[in-house]
Specification:
By secondary structure, this protein is α+β, with helices and mostly antiparallel strands. The protein folds into 5 domains: 9-25 and 247-366 and 394-407, Elastase, domain 1, CATH 3.10.170.10; 38-110, Nuclear Transport Factor 2, Chain: A; 135-238, Roll (Nuclear Transport Factor 2, Chain: A), CATH 3.10.450; 466-607, Neutral Protease, domain 2, CATH 1.10.390; 625-759, Jelly Rolls, CATH 2.60.120. The strands form 8 sheets. A 6-stranded mixed beta sheet has the order 10-18-19-17-14-13, covered by helices on one side. Strand 2 (61-70) and strand 3 form a beta hairpin. Helix 3 (321-345) packs across helix 5 and helix 4 (393-407) crosses helix 5 (415-437). It is globular. The protein starts with 8 loop residues before the first strand and ends with a strand. The relative contact order is 0.10.
């Protein structure tokens, strides 16, 4: 047996004013934001409703502000849940990005509201289901009846740790449909981008939140109960747990930040976080409080500022040196989690607004669990029985990352979104581990130091619970996406995205016998190149906090992670290429060639060729034909980036305007991605299509295809990014056309910017 260095924590009690932080030259996220006043929230809702009114929508449609948090530097994120007839539509929301002046910059939308057409009309798209009738929106069950039905379905003998709640809402029952291009594909050949989730029907339902305990175990579930017949429509676990990862008992002497009191010192960190239950980051002694209803207890105190003995807890006193070790593990892990996100990204605490949290050590007796509890935005740690102490560095990083997700995307903890929720915590845990192992300082996540495995250090058998680089080694987690992924437990459904992140950071190998090989990487080189921990984490964190919605699935995650990479490092950057290859490696999207892309190169083109001339319109009309007078730096609209854009429409009279450009897709191309940013606003108030923008391709050889049609029914605050795969047109010369048609009155503006066609 390898001897372990005793863990003795020696630290100074520094007042908050003396705390220093490294300069963040590469800071990504803004400082904490002020909570909007009721008037400011009402103003934003009014602006969003005004956009709805221009689609002809009535006051039956509205928005409910659910959270606000920092965005990237200079921006703020507001999450607005969609409502219909004052009922929240579960999983339907807008992520609104505003600048310092309060202007809407962009909106990321998951729109599942009844009665709405798709944002862009595409041939073969399924029609939306019918509007619910008044009778269908009238409950026959009371909230108490729904709670009783849910309890009977989950755990009839359990006791409530927190009072149960039942929210009446509209639940979109989803189904998976194939895109037209994949209609005849065998199931085993389906890619995540071959299918989409659409609303099959709407159900009036209660979302019942149960936070119970039974036989020494917490039973946390969210249950969807039909409000008309009492049927259980859906259920998913709400306790976000991990059993075993890392163990700070093996890190030797570590510094921890405490504060001085009259009798000595306490584990209250005055330099990290504010407010919350204890006024700062704290470690408390649950002192074997029952997991059925754990009491966090009081903050740890000690007569000296030397804590712990570095050994596994023996089961005796929780306050002597041996009992303190679990608290040292917890505080060191909490400090490093806070510092990783603050020093590297600029994100403060769990919510980005620097609200303090706490960890309670010694929950239960020989309790084999550690969990994050949304009810208190805190964490509980057991001492272990089958495992050793669960206060490991990546366990804490994992659980605290659940707090970040809960404060931002709040990914629904079921199906693919639940798998992404768990994966995001695994990613956070690994990045915290890498940062802590390298000394817990600096403004970047180190390139190494984490082991890419969950549970190795605390597993008595030496076998981890999860392998991020090869998830299927656990026997249950798949290595790649399939149509059945949504049916798995969320811990197993996290597997493919964990593998994606490993490949994004570390790259893959070409040997089919290797654990680091993917059969889905069919382009060159066969071994994709990674971009390192730091860039991979920045890309993931930006996508999670500023783009993901609660209903984001794997296909949506791929698109939004790619957008984040393009915004941070460039549309043709090595980082953007790596994102596409990493997702292709798990069967989400097609693989592309790197063509010499070295990875982590800070914005190189990676062999990509831009086929659009002057796609940002900064060189005036160069490259464009047709109604080129629409190009300029006009007053009344704003660009997506730069100073110029193309403003089609906005005339308020019968008119037509067209911008075209001839492009060529090489016959040897392995990838051809068209993208553009589009903003739509309108004065139309009827639920009728009057004004359109049609995006189409016309091959020189004849024929043509409509990629999408946008209308006055689809206005959007800020710009929306749109992407199309044009590889099917390789070897052809095409005319790309943006054709606007406006009727005789009431303007609709289609504002176009950042047009790009990248081929490789």
């Amino acid at each position: 047996m390898t001897p372990h260095t005793p863990l003795t924590a020696i630290c100074l009690a520094l007042p908050l004013a003396l705390a220093t932080w490294p300069a963040r030259a590469a800071q990504l996220m803004s400082a904490p934001v002020a909570v909007a006043t009721p008037q400011e929230s009402a103003s934003l809702v009014a602006r969003l409703m005004a956009l709805d009114a221009r689609q002809g929508l009535t006051n039956d449609y509205s928005f409910r502000i659910s959270s606000q948090h920092p965005g990237v530097i200079g921006q703020k994120i507001t999450r607005a849940q969609h409502t219909y007839k004052n009922l929240r539509v579960l999983g339907s929301e807008s992520v609104v990005v505003t600048n310092a002046a309060g202007d809407i910059v962009s909106v990321s939308v998951s729109d599942r509201r009844p009665g709405l057409t798709l944002q862009a009309t595409t041939p073969g798209g399924p029609p939306p289901p019918a509007l619910p009738s008044p009778a269908e929106l009238t409950p026959t069950l009371s909230p108490d009846d729904a709670i009783q039905r849910a309890v009977q379905a989950i755990a009839p003998g359990a006791t409530h740790r927190w009072p149960p709640g039942a929210e009446l809402l509209i639940y979109p029952v989803m189904k998976t449909v194939r895109n037209a291009s994949a209609a005849n594909k065998p199931d085993e050949q389906l890619n995540a981008l071959d299918v989409e989730e659409v609303v099959e029907r709407y159900a009036l339902a209660y979302l019942v939140r149960l936070r119970m305990a039974l036989d020494g175990k917490l039973v946390y579930y969210d249950v969807v109960v039909d409000a008309r017949d009492g049927a259980i429509i859906a259920r998913w676990p709400a306790l976000q747990t991990v059993i075993g990862t890392g163990n700070s008992q093996y890190n030797g002497v570590v510094p921890i930040s405490t504060s001085q009191i009259a009798s000595g010192f306490q584990m209250l960190d005055p330099s990290r976080g504010s407010g919350g239950k204890f006024g700062g980051m704290a470690i408390t002694n649950a002192n074997h409080s029952s997991p059925n209803n754990p009491d966090p207890g009081a903050i740890y105190t000690n007569s000296s500022n030397t804590w712990g003995d570095g050994k596994q807890y023996t089961g005796a006193s929780t306050t002597d040196a041996n009992g303190q070790t679990a608290a040292v593990n917890a505080l060191w892990g909490l400090m490093n989690t806070y510092d990783t996100n603050r020093n590297v990204l600029g994100w403060q605490s769990l919510d980005g607004n620097n609200t303090a949290t706490y960890i309670a050590a010694h929950v239960g007796t020989r309790y084999d669990n550690a969990f994050y509890d949304d009810s208190c935005a805190c964490m509980y740690i057991g001492d272990g029985n089958s495992f050793t102490s669960l206060g490991a560095i990546d366990v804490i990083g994992h659980e605290m990352s659940h707090g970040v997700t809960a404060a931002t995307a709040n990914l629904i903890y079921a199906g693919e979104s639940g798998g992404l929720n768990e994966s995001s915590s695994d990613i956070g845990g690994e990045m915290v581990e890498a940062y802590a192992r390298a000394g817990g300082s600096g403004t970047t996540v180190p390139a190494s130091g984490n082991d890419w495995m969950m549970g190795t250090e605390i597993s008595k058998s030496g076998q981890p619970l999860r392998w991020m680089y090869k998830p299927h080694k656990d026997g249950s987690s798949p290595d790649a996406w399939s149509a059945s992924l949504k049916n798995l437990d969320v811990h197993y459904a996290s597997g493919p995205n964990n593998r994606m992140f490993y490949f994004l950071s570390q790259g893959s190998r070409a040997d089919p016998a290797s654990d680091y090989y993917s059969p889905y990487l069919t382009r060159t080189p066969a071994a994709m190149t990674g971009i390192g921990n730091d860039k991979a984490y920045r890309i993931w964190f930006k996508a999670l906090t500023t783009k993901f919605t609660a209903a984001t699935n794997y296909a949506d995650a791929r698109n939004k992670v790619l957008q984040a990479a393009q915004e941070l490092y460039g549309a043709a950057s090595k980082e953007a290429i790596a994102v596409q290859r990493a997702y292709a490696a798990i069967n989400v999207g097609a693989d592309i060639d790197e063509e010499g892309g070295g990875g982590g190169g800070g914005g190189g083109d990676g062999g990509a060729v831009e086929q659009i001339v002057n796609g940002g319109f900064e060189n005036g009309v160069t490259g464009w034909n047709g109604s080129t007078g629409v190009i300029g730096a006009h007053s009344g609209q704003t660009p997506y980036e730069g100073k110029r854009y193309a403003w089609l429409g906005g005339n308020g009279r019968r008119s037509s305007e067209t911008l075209t450009q001839q492009v060529q897709i090489p016959a040897a191309a392995s990838s051809a991605q068209l993208s553009f940013a589009l903003h739509i606003d309108t004065a139309e108030t009827s639920n009728t299509v009057y004004d359109t923008l049609t995006v189409s391709l016309r091959p020189d050889s004849g024929g043509g295809a409509t990629l999408a049609t946008y209308t006055n029914l689809t206005p959007a605050a800020g710009y929306q990014l749109h992407n199309f795969d044009l590889l099917a047109y390789k070897g052809q010369t095409l005319t790309l056309s943006f054709a606007m048609r406006e009727d005789r009155s009431k303007q609709t503006s289609f504002v176009l910017d950042k047009v790009s066609l990248l081929t490789r």
